[in-house]
Amino acid sequence: MSKQKIKIDIVSDINCPWCYVGEQRLKKAIAATEGTYEFDINFKPFELNASIPQEGVDRVEYFKNSYGPGIVSQLDTMNQRMTDAGTEEGIQFNFDKLPRVNNTFNGHRLIWLADQHGVQKAVANALFYSHFTEGKNMNDTAVLKEVGIANGIPAEKLEGFFEGEEGTKEVRALEQWAQASGITGVPAFIINDKYLVSGAQPAATFLNVFSEVAPKAPAFEEIKTEGDSCGIDGNC
After folding, report:
1. How far apart are the C-alpha atoms of 34 and 29, rounded to whole Å?
2. Within 10 A of 92 (CB to CB), how many other CB atoms are there?
3. Could you tell me the CA-to-CA distances from 90 to 32, 55, 64, 151, 234 in Å, in that order?
4. Fewer CB atoms < 10 Å away: N or C end of the chain?
């Protein structure tokens, strides 16, 4: 008997800590199904900070400019909350290594390229780790090349990749698709091209959704739940 296939499009940004947490919770839920389903997982781009210059911006100044000076006194609490959530999912957040908020468009191009070579999940996870645990700049093309090669993209495919335009049009089109779909915050998980799970939901929520999208489930158009996420204004 063939397994039911569940397609999951993960709409996320490398700059989004809740995206990292949400993806780890999804992995936990998939492992808990013990092979009941066949999963087809794809990462789709979403830039929380598309207007950030190539050189990035100071992290504290970014928050001050976005939310006012009062936000500075809350940053430590925000970081601790995020760190605690990450620890529960096996993630080590090191926000002290992230003095700047960086442009992530080139990172999304790398994830797109990784999909062409069947290593998208490995590259996406490595980028999250490189950024949030190692504190690396996700707009540093040398770092991106290193991550890509280490996770299965042929080195010759990355020669001159970031200097050219390959993947640019495709990533822009995918970003427009997400916006046209009404997604304003990430992570967002689109299941079977029809159902939406918003935010970094617990693994149990994903398991419930998997059972609801089985063939005998009631016919409804959207499963929409609210969880922790990052908005298009960068607020996490």
Report:
1. 9
2. 11
3. 16, 30, 30, 20, 24
4. N
